[in-house]
Amino acid sequence: MANLGAGDYLSLWKGYGTYGIVGAVVVGILIPILLSAVFMGKKSGKQRGVPAQVSGEAGYAIRNARVNELIEVPWKGATTMAALFEQSCKKHSQYRFLGTRKRISKELITASDGRKFEKLHMGDYEWETYGEIFDRACNFASGLVRLGHNLDSRVAIFAETRAEWFIALQGCFQQSLTVVTIYASLGEDALIHSLNETQVSTLICDSKQLKKLAAISSGLKSIQNVIYFEDDGTENDTGFSGSTSNWTISSFSEVEKLGKKSPVNPSLPSKNDIAVVMYTSGSTGLPKGVMISHGNIVATAAAVMTVVPNLRRSDVYLAYLPLAHVFEMAAESVMLAAGCSMGYGTASTLTDTSNKVKKGTKGDASVLKPTIMTAVPAILDRIRDGVVKKVEEKGGLVKHLFNIAYKRRLSAIEGSWLGAWGLERMLWDVLVFKRIRTSIGGQIRFMLCGGAPLSGDSQRFINICMGAPIGQGYGLTETFAGGAFSEWDDITVGRVGPPLPCCYIKLVSWEEGGYKTTDKPMPRGEIVVGGFSVTAGYFKNQEKTNEVYKVDEKGMRWFYTGDIGQFHPDGCLEIIDRKKDIVKLQHGEYISLGKVEAALLSCNYVDNIMVYADPFHNYCVALVVPSHQVLEKWAQQASINYRDFSELCDKAETVSEVQQSLSKVAKTAKLDKFETPAKIKLLPEAWTPESGLVTAAFKIKREQLKAKFKDELHKLYG
Q1: Nearest 10 degrees: Cα torsion 652, 606, 452, 60
Q2: Most buried of the four, 190, 301, 600, 684, by CB within 10 Å?
Q3: CA distance linking residue 601 with residue 604, whole number of Å
Q4: DSSP state of 430
Q5: Could you tell me if 399 and 392 are in contact, meaning their C-beta atoms sit under 8 angstroms apart?
Q6: CA-to-CA distance for 7 and 383, rounded, in angstroms?
Q7: pLDDT band at 281, cuts 50/70/90?
Q8: In 3D, which of 650, 716, 648 has the Cα closest to residue 678?
């Protein structure tokens, strides 16, 4: 994803002559000045969340201002995902539902350094209707039974996101089967742990995972059946040897055909039955399995449907994030309930310039033209970086025009009368931003962002350049993504909105960290979520479940998140800290590692950063993954000679340059001296989910990073 959209954004500027650019600048300045003499406007002060009286531990509680009672279902009768799926498929039976691009060709390209890269030529989307998908899910469910799957055991899905993943999930629900979800990027130890702990008897995977399974088969105790997704509908060589002959290995299409030939009546679940055991990649140790009920999923889906503006059957959703992640599963559940179309793509084929897209062919977004997308902040940051890079390369009048347009649109979007009236927006959209938006299809009307905090700069950049509001969500696997969600007309940044209407949120004072619900001007404390989205706990881990889940005297279930938040006067939540990221230094000062990292990420040199604090010292240090592009540009301007990027990162003058820049950013962010890293180590290799150093949502895994780079951290304190 490092080059997401990086070359796609400014073919953009072709067609603008010098006179056209100068004329646009003049018009863009004069029209707002003339109209400002006529109109005046005000920012609205909408109340989005209101105080609520709840039982349980004392705290400051808020509910969504639009509901008096929590929402539990999207409509009467849809109490489980099996019921919701069947009812939605019948209601929209003739309309298109799931789309997949056909692969036309694949070739390997050899780079100048000898590395080989796969390039794909993909065709148009081929669609199946709601009715057809329902039939396929039922056929697969029947096929599982006929294959001999033990209905008292679990099914696991270990694969990249695709239509068959969704069909398999819904098929399992038709037979009341609990599905175990595992990130495709998890390492072998985590995979073995997850499958053995849940005693999975049937494992569904994609063909590229088969060799990984063969390598660890001796460590898998309960697997009896393996079902694999074919590539482009062709049979695959499974690569299994005789050592795994005790496994029944079938293709997905074979199981569908078996079920179609010999159907089995459904065995439908209840709302409290566990639909999914979702293993989180987590930031510490082995992954934990969160038990998610059918009621949890439909409650979050019902709540999100009320806050996405005008969600309707004509909307098109681009699905490419991991379905094993709660964010994507929740989003696809919402699209199912609303009757939308879902086209499947991948992170590596998302835009025309994504790394697996053959030159001259189209990426998923260009072909699908989605109206709704989800994204994690890391992806939005890279979209922003791609646009900025191209603007800088163009320079001159193009750069000047872009900067004027951006500043004027920023002024409008932050609440001036022009933002509401819309003339200036239309002007700059036509002159500048329309062509940028073609990189993700040109039709986006709403984006959902979650998984990690989104910076205010990135949020504004997407608002302006992509012309769409961003609903920033806050939730966890333990609340099936249902927590808070910012509303489309909220122009503020840095907040995650009021509680979703399926839950309450309360703040509980954390005395040790200095956060209290009596704090002024806003109450602060640990964020606790209660309501229909709160899950049943951790699989086979009652001790940890009891630690963070509580049930009050009225039977409401609460989850203690460990995050620290504050409520604004309009009832919107802001995440400001995390309990486990706080370290007490030698002289008694408390340092919030997450807060410092969030501030320092705005440094141009920083692609990623982990701040580390040893309690036996009075200062912190940092591991920094620098931006290749920015650092190499500096080296060129500073006439620094180096053989490769690793050597550049080791040079004393490079470390000094980055550290000075970090200090300036820290000063601007008003960090204390002890919060500013006294020493840093530059690391040339990016942290990816595949490396196990960040989660699927690109949040750093602190314990894994500390373990991998323990020698470097020791030297920084040496």
Answers
A1: 80
A2: 301
A3: 8
A4: I
A5: yes
A6: 10
A7: low
A8: 716
Q: Which two tokens stand for residue 385?
A: 């970086």
Query: 562: left (phi > 0), else alpha (psi -120 to 50), else beta?
Result: left
Q: What confidence tens digit (pLDDT) does each residue in 223-274 have?
A: 999 999 998 644 455 555 444 568 999 999 999 999 999 999 999 999 999 9
Task: Give the per-residue pLDDT at 286.
Answer: 75
Dist. CA 398–CA 406, nearest whole Å: 12
Q: What pLDDT band is residue 418 in, cutting at 50, 70 and 90? A: very low
Q: Give the strand pairing for 537-538 and 549-551.
A: unpaired
How far apart CA 182 and CA 195 sit, in angstroms, is 9
Position 562, amino acid: G
Which tokens go with 579?
Answer: 């309990």
308-330 pLDDT, tens digit per residue, is 999 999 999 999 999 999 999 99
What average pLDDT does the structure give for the chain? 87
Q: Write down the domain spans for the chain.
A: 1-38+369-468, 81-97+120-269, 585-716
H or E element that contains 107: strand 96-110
Nearest to 563 by CA among 581, 546, 543: 581
Contact 179, 200 (CB under 8 A): no
CB-based contact 552:508 (threshold 8 Å): no
619: left (phi over 0), alpha (psi -120 to 50) or beta: beta
Q: State the fold for domain 585-716.
A: GMP Synthetase; Chain A, domain 3 (3.30.300)
Domain 81-97+120-269 grouped into CATH 3.40.50.12780: yes
Residue listed under structure tokens 């539902």: 97
Tell me the residue length of the chain.
718
pLDDT at 240: 58
* Contact criterion met (CB below 8 Å) for 441 and 418: no
Please tell me the distance from the alpha carbon of residue 340 to that of residue 589, in angstroms, as a whole number: 52
Domains 81-97+120-269 and 585-716 share a fold: no
0.90 exceeded by pTM: no
498 contacts 573 by C-beta, under 8 angstroms? yes
